[in-house]
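Shall we go through a protein fold together, starting from nothing but its sequence? Please make up or recall a protein chain and show it to me in full. Go ahead whenever you are ready, and we will take it from there.
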Amino acid sequence: MYTLHLKKNKYLVLLLSLIFFTPTIIWALSDDVEKPVNIEANYVVFDNNKGIADYEGNVIITQGSLQILADSVHIQAPGHEISMVIAFGSPVKLRQEMDDGEIIKGQGKKMTYDVENKIMILTEDAKLEQGRDIIINNYIKYLPDTGKLHAGGQKNSGRVKATFHPTNKADKNKKDPANR
């Protein structure tokens, strides 16, 4: 196992923080950004001169509660600071615990995270889940700084499919005798 301690490893945790398609923003575990990034793979090639690393075969990336599973991952880190993470899989799978204890899951055949511009894109059979809420499209783009999520709108991205479940507030009000 290889452990990376990079200044910008906090942006890796944002990979899964992208699933903010409900009205309230839920943040990943606050202390995840302080944890080391651990990467396991069957094979890795580092090129320090170019600042790149290619991980191949059953790649597992963890940082705190964040877990990314992929077939291969390409990391660009000029000057030893991560600028781009590109993961491929069938599919790439993402999972992370939020501060409220809820689990966020995402997947797509390709995941690109532009760390410098803080843009995360899932493509090809992309799917994001937060609790029982789901959004599906061939193109899902997330901007962590603003909390904005864009799905569809690209050539061949198809129709966006979303399922949102109401909160239990309405059910609680019906059952509460004080609200009658």
About this structure: The chain has one domain: 2-179.
